[in-house]
Amino acid sequence: MKALAIFVIGFALGASIILTNPIIFGGDTLLRLMHRDRLVMGHQLPMLQVLIAVVSKISTNPVLVRYMDAAIGGIAGVAFFWMIQDLFGEKWAFPAALLFVSNPFFLALSTVPFQEMLMLAGLLLAFHFFYTEKWPASSLALAAACLTRYEAWAACPVLALAYIWRRDRSPMGWLKAAVLFGWTPAVWIVANHGLSSRGHFVIESSLTFGRLQRYVYLGWIAVKNTQIPVLLLAMAGVWRLHRDRVLMDWRLFVQIGFVALFLISIPFSAHGVLPDPERYVTAREAAIPIYFVIFMSVLGLTKWPRWTWAIVAVSVVLGAIGGHLYVWRETSKPDVQLSYRVATYLDGKMIAGERALILSKPITEDMLQSYLMKARQTGGEEGLRQARLELQQADMRGTDYQRLVVHSQLGRERLLAPPAMCGEWEAVWSDYPEAARELAGAQPVDVLRSGPLSVTILRRKCE
Question: What is the pLDDT of residue 378?
Answer without folding.
Answer: 62
